[in-house]
Design a protein that fits this description.
The chain is built from nine helices and 16 strands. By secondary structure, the chain is an alpha+beta fold. The chain has three domains: 5-99, DnaJ domain (Helix Hairpins), CATH 1.10.287.110; 120-253, Heat shock protein DnaJ, cysteine-rich domain (Chaperone, DNAj Protein, Chain A), CATH 2.10.230.10; 260-373, HSP40/DNAj peptide-binding domain (Sandwich). α2 runs antiparallel to α3 (40-56).
Length: 376
């Protein structure tokens, strides 16, 4: 009698793909032969769940099943038209729960040949000055590298590794559960497929030993936080003659007391007197590299106005156009005046008078609404 695959998994016909997969996992965990030894009913339910998921987990097959029923997914044979994909997915699902590899009639061989070392990650904090000009920084990296005492063989005498007799070099031992073959790592060799009869006293037979090494990292001008610099072959050493992995240096750029970075542009503030902004003139502005450069201030510049200094921002790490240095002018009101200065300002105030409006500038209330409430 043909079964309804939706009923087998306990889902509605409009269930999402994720809901179908979750239901399949739940059924597979509940009825797995390892959890129900000798229970033939559980094994039958287990097989039905796998059969149901083979159809409902495939978009095309599910559409044919919805339209034609079992006739739409039989492909001329007595059972559903299974392919290897469902079994691979089935293996992944169960393996993630039970911690072993699951196969159908056979098991995979674990590689016992050369293996590439892992890629390591190192977080490096640099100053904005270093990010602006570029630099060469030394870092201290802990890592496992090819053991110099045994030259990576893992053997004290240098004879190397021999094939594990428990797994015949496969690295796995297999157990049969009905139509399933469950492969677990070999307990004698730890899944390597080979063993060292006389382990090296320095690396314990692994072929790699822990070390710390100082490496030089070239910081190109214009780098930003989050950028990654890859040092080829400077990661962990490989196993059994395999190549070393890479070292990935992740950059973090510290805040600067005077400059704020936004993309490739830099922002800073420059104090100016009222006569300077009223009449216009030149103002010396410091740059990130410690130099100063003259900024021309147009007559009538207002406090808070931002003036651009083209090309004086962060350089492009890819060799493109550099950013700009944006200078916010801050008019400083003097706090202490002598009699002559006070008299001169009184006279100037009488000549100029108080302004009727703020001109092109936003009012205090408009600025507050824009910055705090997001209104403009």
């Amino acid at each position: 009698m043909a079964v309804d695959y939706y009923e087998v998994l306990g889902v509605e016909r409009n269930a999402s793909a994720d809901e179908v997969k979750k239901a399949y996992r739940k059924a597979a965990l509940r009825d797995h032969p390892d959890r129900n030894p000798g229970d033939t009913a559980a094994e039958d339910r287990f097989k039905e769940a796998a059969e149901a998921y083979a159809v409902l987990g495939d978009t095309d097959k599910r559409a044919r099943f919805d339209q034609y029923g079992h006739a739409g997914v039989r492909g001329g044979s007595a059972g559903p038209d299974f392919n290897s994909d469902v079994f691979a997915d089935f293996s992944d699902v169960l393996g993630s729960f039970f911690g072993f590899n699951v196969g159908f009639g056979g098991g995979g061989r674990r590689s016992s040949g050369p293996m590439r070392g892992s890629t390591l990650q190192y977080r490096l904090r640099v100053t904005l000055d270093q990010a602006f000009s570029g630099d060469e920084v030394e870092i201290d990296v802990p890592r496992r590298r090819t053991c110099s005492d045994c030259d990576g063989s893992g053997s004290e005498s240098g004879t190397g590794r021999s094939t594990c007799v428990a797994c015949a070099g496969v690295g796995q031992v297999q157990q049969r559960h009905g139509f399933l073959t469950v492969a677990r790592p070999c307990g004698r060799c730890g899944g390597a497929g080979s063993i060292v009869e006389d382990p090296c006293s320095v690396c314990g037979g692994e072929g790699r030993a822990q070390e710390r090494e100082r490496l030089k990292v070239a910081i190109p001008p214009g780098v930003a936080a989050g950028m990654r610099l890859r040092l080829r072959g400077e990661g962990e050493g490989g196993l059994r003659g395999g190549p070393a992995g890479d070292l990935e240096v992740v950059l973090d750029v510290a805040e600067h007391p005077r400059f704020i970075r936004h993309g490739q542009d830099l922002y800073t503030r420059a104090p100016a007197s009222f006569p300077r902004v009223a009449l216009g003139g030149s103002l010396e502005v410091p740059t990130v590299d410690g130099e100063t450069i003259a900024l021309e201030i147009p007559a009538g510049t207002q406090s808070g106005q931002v003036l651009d200094m083209r090309g004086l921002g962060m350089p492009s790490v890819n060799g493109g156009r550099p950013g700009d240095l944006k200078v916010e002018i801050q008019v400083v009101t003097p706090r202490h005046l002598d009699d002559e200065q006070e008299a001169a300002l009184h006279h100037l105030g009488e000549l100029i008078g108080d302004p009727d409006d703020l001109g092109d500038e936003q009012s205090w209330w408009d600025r507050l609404r824009s910055s705090v409430f997001g209104q403009g």
